[in-house]
Amino acid sequence: STDSVESCLDCLLKALIWKISGSGFAGNKCFKHQENQSYVGLFHQEKVNTFMRSPCVEAGLIPPLVQLLHSKDHEVLLQTGRALGNICYDSHEGRSAVDLAGGAQIVAGHIKSLSQNTDPDNGKLLTVFCGMLMNYSNDNDSLQAQLINMGVIPTLVKLLGLHSDNTALTEMCLIAFGNLAELESSKEQFASTNIAEELVRLFQRQAEHEKKEMIFEVLAPLAENDVIKLQLVEAGLVECLLDVVVHTVDGVREEDVAQLKTASDLMVLLLLGDESMQKLFEGGKGSVFQRVLSWVPSHNHQLQLAGALAIANFARNDGNCIHMVESGIVQKLLELLDRHVDEGNVTVQHAALSALRNLAIPVVNKAKMLSAGVSDTVLKFLPSEMPPVQFKLLGTLRMLIDTQADAADQLGTNGKLVERLVEWCEAKDHAGVMGESNRLLSALIRHSKSKDVVKTVIQGAGVKHLVVMATSEHMIMQNEALVALGLIAGLDLVGAEKDFVGAGLVQVLHKLLSDEMSAPEVKYNSMICAFFKDSSSLDLFFSHPPPEPLHKEVQGLAFIDVVSKLRSHENKTVSHQASLTEQRLTAQS
Q1: Which GO terms describe its cellular component (predicted)?
Q2: Total-model pTM
């Protein structure tokens, strides 16, 4: 029965533990090498059984096993390393016991002292010890951090270089790297070694898919570090990745598809580093940059995606953006988007819109991109129900119309666009979409300064959302909303009056002016908005008193007291506007 088997095993374990601990090893006495090898070999075999691990720990097996790591006998060390590795495998109790007994430190010391020895037998022992540390720390952040603090990373990197012909040891090092590289604290240690060169050299020698995948699994977490990104680029990883793409782009096997995705994703990741990106851009003339651009018109969706994301990453400074727009990249992106209006590949749509948004940031690019028909293409995705696409669509349009009055006027009088914006302003499940919708609604008014746009927004029920936007926790959004509301008041106060009252605009402005935490810009814009007259732009705002309902609210909340206090504000712009506003209020009262 199960009980009798476990009982027998328990007796066996206790006997073996007594044999090991009492055989003369404890206290640095002599012991019989042959016997200890046999006993530990049995543990190594028995530990494969999951249900045996906890009994081994509970029976006190770990301390005597760890003591055997001090042996000078190669076979004893080999069998002990295997036994401890098996005990640690997927066992919290086993790992804790080995940790308490100091086993990891001893093994790490052995690896360091043996790392220079390229003898085949030594390679076997190193492989076992590396495997033991891998099982010891796998999926355990605290134990991985412990190994990092012991300095195992530089040692393992040296192993990879000195023992590159030892397949088993190399694979064990890669698995260990994969475990440790997930910890952010490991990146600095990795960056101080020549890990980039060793991994690239190893990758270049591989022909098998599985081996390349193992290296990819290490490269991905390492490449999240900007210093290592640059090291990998300088070591020649990009050329390796491009070669993988060439050989797998037309492949139909699963492993080809997997390698293509991994290689192209890793390329995009390398471009997230400023230095690595700029090194590959080479003023827009780099061969890598040109190769990546050729991915955009590809028939392969994965390459289309990677190409668009790469452009978005290259477009992270004005110089690069200006060069790319001049070189015709916008047209490639528009053609790509047109191909995906009906196909509806969301990831490609999102990536292409991201690239266009970044390219539209420099002022000199906006008019060129508008002339190229970017806004018309972007509007084709207005029916999209995918929040990531909605978010990038909104951001792209907002960047395009910045300082572009005609474009803002044209888009701001597009009833379908305004209707969709108002709808998305209520997308509470998607804060990003909701925020961008509000910002674009405000931008259409601010950049057009058009009465027709204001009327369209009023008719589309957008005013209330701008009032809510004025209460945002983000100062930039508060100011954008307040300026837009001031323009609405100045251009069509009568048409907006009902919405102002319904949304509680006066109460919002009073709160912003009273709140000591409100930024000076917010207070200034609140006064401009509240009294519908800007002393520097008399032709823009109404000069006659506001409608009766609003006037009553202003009087009822004692605005004059709040404004009077602001006359002594430390910000001169605020205090000056407070003086002007107080005069206005006094004249109206």
Answers
A1: cytosol; endoplasmic reticulum; mitochondrion
A2: 0.83
